[in-house]
Design goal:
Elements: E1 7-10, H1 14-25, E2 33-36, H2 41-50, E3 53-55, H3 58-64, E4 67-70, H4 74-87, E5 95-98, H5 105-112, E6 117-122, E7 132-138, H6 144-155, E8 158-162, H7 166-177, H8 179-196, H9 201-221, H10 226-232, H11 239-249, H12 252-273
Parallel strand pairs: 1-2, 1-4, 2-3, 4-5, 5-6, 7-8
Antiparallel strand pairs: 6-7
The structure holds NADP nicotinamide-adenine-dinucleotide phosphate.
Amino acid sequence: MNDIRNIAFIGAGNMTQSIVGGMCKSGYPAEKVWISNPSTGKLDKMKSELGVNTSQDNLEVVNAADAIVLAVKPQLMAEVCDHLKQHIDNLADKLIITIAAGIRIPKYRQYLGDDIKIIRVMPNTPSLVGQGMSGLVADDSVNDADKSYVTEAFNGVGETLWVSDEDQLDILGAVAGSGPAYFFEFMDSLAKGAVELGFDPEKARAMVQQTCLGAAQMAKESDLSLEDLRKQVTSKGGSTAKGVETYQQRELHNISADAVKAAVNRNQEMAKLF
Ligand SMILES: NC(=O)c1ccc[n+]([C@@H]2O[C@H](COP(=O)([O-])OP(=O)(O)OC[C@H]3O[C@@H](n4cnc5c(N)ncnc54)[C@H](OP(=O)(O)O)[C@@H]3O)[C@@H](O)[C@H]2O)c1
């Protein structure tokens, strides 16, 4: 990592813990990381495990940093931003990064000022195990150096994908953000299918999770389309063909398309709440 800045995280929840853990693991110096949180338990843990700087005072960490990650729940964002706006004079000189779901960039301009530089990031929970898929979006307020800084930081917990606007980020959120839940639902249903036929539940889980991981790894390493990969493991007249036919008859692709649309709609409804 070439660009090392003082970076402050407001809120020491699950996402902050995974992002900071990943950044430190990939070589980001802990003494450049500042974290604030109202209660001390998570702060103490991160300080002792990683050696980062901690405080119960948001203003202290913001004053110490050039890049600020807003990582509180969306319903607390207005209050947290208002406090910063009241007490920090040079917010426009700092790079603001927000990971909150549902709050759009124009709203942050209302909260923090028209002149802020801001990047929205939508991480997902596999970031906790270093296999995240983070979506990023920014407007013209940020330059390429700011973009690569944030890209590198989030590459510490998985992969990053820049999208062109916030509508695209809603779609990314509905697929990558919510996706782990869809895959867990699908994995659970496959395991239950095996158990219903008399298979041991623990073995069913082991077999499903490894199959899912293996399929994802094959998809990542192959140049073939997902459809061609599926065809490759589906011999005509074989047992896989029968299984796939069952999914196709029940129109799995329509179910997935509806699920994504429903999650996008919900993202857009939530955006109106803030
Ligand atoms: N989890 C996900 O999959 C996911 C995915 C994408 C985006 N996000 C976004 O990431 C953000 C954080 O999510 P999370 O799952 O990490 O939530 P979380 O575990 O609940 O963490 C939020 C943290 O904020 C702290 N906090 C509360 N009030 C604060 C204040 N005034 N100043 C500073 N910190 C304060 C809380 O401290 P206490 O516990 O002491 O109250 C808590 O540690 C949310 O906006 C969410 O939308 C999450």
